[in-house]
Specification:
The protein is an alpha+beta fold and 191 residues long. It contains 5 helices and 9 strands; from the N terminus they run H-E-H-E-E-E-H-H-E-E-E-H-E-E.
Amino acid sequence: LFEDARRFLTDHRYHVALTTGLEFELRLYGFTPALCPTLLRLHRSTEESPQFPYRVRLAKQGDIAAMSRLYSAAFEKVAGSIVRVRAHLARIWTEYAEARVVTDAEGKVVAYFVPRVFDGNLIVTEFAFDAPFTVAQMKHLLLDSADKNDCAAVFVFDPPACSFPLGAEYPSYSPITPPVGFLATIDLDEL
């Protein structure tokens, strides 16, 4: 299958191919990791907690439009980010069973995050927020969520180019953050 696909791409003068799959097998066909999420660990700071006039609740399917808007706004300028349209989010909604939305006093969704408790830690697999919600408020919210779930630490998956300054520690790639996308060059003559 890979040989047929590569032949098709070569015959039609494609420059590169991007796919997902098992790293070992893809490397055999000339693919290399291209989309590698980063795992960040959040730490409490001694600074005062920010004002928090927001409400947090379990997300529901009616929040898909707002979540999609927040995601697009947060990641539109991040190289290699995955496009999420409403239809995509609706199709994979079961993966968001634990998602939380943050609403302002008028009920408008200003942030969301997808937490999972794993091995005594809170793992946040996705998040997005928009003004007037702030970075300090998001950090405070995630750390409080960990406390409420009796979690020892908070780990956040983050695209490598994302500038989410949570006062986080950037460890090297962790075994629980394998590459999610692989790239192979096909035809570089025109480049």
